[in-house]
Amino acid sequence: MRIPLFLAVAQWALLLALGLLVITAYRQLGRVLSRSKQPAELGPVVGSRAGRLAYQRLRPGGDQDPADAAPRSFDPGDGQPALVAFVDPTCPSCEELVTSLGAARASGQLGDSRILLLTSDPPGYLQISAAFRDTGLEIGRPLDHADVEAYRASATPLLVAIDGGGVVRAAGTAYRPAEVAAFGQACLLPPTGPLLPVTT
């Protein structure tokens, strides 16, 4: 007994539609869970001095330049304000944050601030998300877990605004354009007042 061609095509089309429905539901569930379960202690203490971060540069697309294998260092307090984002390509809110950071950089809202995206995922994962694949922002993988713990980056997305003097001006979950703009303004504040010691 032969199955008519239109039934075979309809079966495959339904299977494809079901697969797309499952992927959409998974992304929505991830978005809801990332918004509802935020750790109480996320990000460094505002007003403290930001710690140093050692990282390895990653390039979307997987073609790593041999020069990227060399460890790099983010040293807050070098006079340049910075936004450090702890993100993962598989996190829908992180995709929004990367897109918002890119748009804010392009519009000039972030001034001369340095933007560093840090992820624990392997370089191949950057291809999963168009936001990560097409961003012109610097992406790295932390080399020392103690650095990540010092920033209390136990969940993603985490955005940290650091002024030119190395002071944490804002830290927390942010991914919408208005939130990113507020963090950008916070990192552009001039360094003032006494500092708390570095969190280690």
Characterization of this structure:
- This protein has five helices and seven strands; from the N terminus they run H-E-E-E-H-E-H-E-H-E-E-H.
- With 200 residues, the chain is an alpha/beta fold.
- The chain has two domains: 1-37; 53-187, Glutaredoxin (3-Layer(aba) Sandwich), CATH 3.40.30.
- The protein has a seven-stranded mixed sheet with strand order 2-1-5-4-3-6-7.
- Helix 2 (92-107) packs across helix 5 (177-187).
- It starts with a helix and ends in a 13-residue tail after the last helix.
- Residues 194-200 have low confidence and may be disordered.
Short précis:
By secondary structure, the protein is an alpha/beta fold. The protein has helices spanning 5-36, 92-107, 130-133, 145-150, 177-187; strands spanning 53-58, 72-74, 82-86, 114-118, 138-142, 158-162, 168-172. It folds into two domains: 1-37; 53-187, Glutaredoxin, CATH 3.40.30.10.
